[in-house]
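Figure 6 in text form: structure in, sequence out.
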């Protein structure tokens, strides 16, 4: 018993040190990346140890002087950071003196560019400095460079064709509705997962039912089960954005035996529903784009020239989806507007039918108890479409759920912070809670 008591005491002493050290390394890496993003050259180099070694594909920099000389080119005369990064996984040695950090790297346009890895050392004054940096892994084997993807259609029991794309062959299967908006974002996980995206009825490249007035969130749940059964995915991770973040919880309550984990992106809440009017009039859209859209509404362009109207509308709405107006142009309206189903004259009819069912679909306590698998909610605290309070609600009422908040992020929070958003998803798909996840209590 004395031996057991001593062991328990040692755990009580060591584990908090490790936990604190992990957070210290995470904060150091985050501060390092923030100084780079803020163009604060002096602060950036304070994180670098005097004897640090930075390695890349072209060579090795030894010592802080060489690193300053080489990395200054990323600052001098460069107004915008050429890339961004952040910690996805952090570990420390038992003594809490040496830490390892790794995570994704993104271009200014939010494109996945690869991974970094760095080793940190705790200094005598308690600060952390990077002693080794890189090289990390190359970009995920997505369609552009390595992994081919499969594309086709799935027939529903009533004959509607659902368009899908599938990429990767990892042991974890992710299925996400809204292919036309999410495939390009999610294909980066093809190195660790099998990623399947599909368009709902009447959306993207899927078939359009003759009577769209019968569309509902309950139909979306049924179609998700049809897609799962088609691919014979016994256990999978449903991922839903916007109102589909609610749909994947409805699915998990109805089919818990098939759900491994759940991911929600900017979901409408269980009882806290969507925003019906803009939170503010000035959300950063250029005045010329606003005036053009207003004129096209007035002259009937929605039905007269539907594709052009679609581009004009999304040229404005993309600013509503992003918290930072400077990042809104990363959303390309031409891609969505190339699809006839996404022209507002067609998409509006679909959403008008679906959204009342979304507001009415409130899970009672007994159904919430069925969602026992881990649920990760990622929500921007500046979301103008689905209130941030709804994301917090899910994290509070579900048995095993946590929330990752994207500060300043709007409805498409990955536009504002791809590092935080996609790093959290990757960590969760590996089976762990993201470093910044929060257990919300009422």
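Output sequence:
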């Amino acid at each position: 018993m004395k031996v057991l008591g001593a062991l328990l005491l040692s755990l009580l002493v060591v584990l908090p040190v490790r936990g604190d050290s992990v957070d210290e390394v995470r904060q150091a890496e985050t501060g390092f990346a923030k100084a780079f993003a803020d163009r604060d050259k002096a602060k950036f180099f304070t994180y670098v140890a005097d004897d640090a070694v930075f390695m890349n594909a072209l060579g090795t920099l030894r010592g802080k002087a060489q690193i300053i000389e080489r990395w200054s080119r990323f600052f001098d005369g460069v107004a915008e950071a050429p890339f961004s990064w952040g910690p996805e996984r952090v570990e420390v040695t038992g003594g809490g003196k040496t830490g390892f950090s790794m995570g994704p790297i993104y271009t200014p346009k939010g494109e996945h560019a690869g991974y970094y890895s760095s080793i940190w050392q705790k200094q005598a004054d308690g600060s952390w400095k990077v002693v080794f940096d890189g090289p990390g892994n190359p970009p995920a084997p997505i369609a552009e460079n390595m992994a081919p993807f499969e594309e086709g259609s799935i027939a529903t029991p009533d004959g509607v064709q659902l368009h899908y794309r599938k990429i990767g062959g990892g042991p974890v299967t992710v299925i996400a509705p809204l292919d036309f908006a999410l495939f390009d974002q999610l294909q980066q996980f093809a190195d660790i997962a099998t990623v399947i995206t599909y368009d709902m009825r009447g959306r993207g490249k899927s078939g359009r039912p003759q009577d769209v007035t019968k569309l509902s969130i309950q139909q979306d749940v049924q179609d998700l089960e049809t897609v799962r059964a088609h691919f014979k995915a016994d256990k999978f991770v449903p991922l839903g954005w916007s109102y589909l973040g609610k749909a994947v919880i409805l699915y998990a309550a109805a089919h818990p035996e098939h759900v491994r984990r759940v991911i929600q992106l900017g979901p409408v809440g269980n009882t806290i529903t969507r925003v019906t009017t803009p939170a503010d009039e000035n959300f950063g859209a250029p005045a010329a784009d606003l005036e053009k859209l207003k004129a096209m509404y007035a002259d009937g362009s929605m039905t007269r020239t539907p594709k052009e109207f679609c581009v004009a509308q999304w040229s404005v709405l993309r600013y509503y989806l992003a918290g930072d107006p400077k990042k809104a142009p990363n959303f390309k309206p031409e891609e969505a507007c190339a699809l006839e189903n996404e022209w507002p004259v067609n998409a509006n009819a679909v959403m008008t039918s679906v959204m009342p069912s979304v507001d009415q679909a409130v899970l009672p306590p007994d159904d919430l108890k069925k969602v026992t698998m881990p649920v990760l909610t990622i929500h921007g605290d500046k979301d103008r479409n689905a209130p941030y309070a709804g994301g917090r609600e899910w994290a509070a009422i579900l048995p095993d759920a946590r929330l990752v908040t994207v500060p300043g992020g709007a409805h498409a929070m990955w536009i504002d912070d791809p590092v935080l958003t996609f790093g959290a998803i990757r960590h969760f798909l590996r089976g762990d809670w993201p470093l910044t996840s929060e257990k919300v209590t009422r």
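Caption detail: Confidence is low (pLDDT under 50) at residues 1-18.
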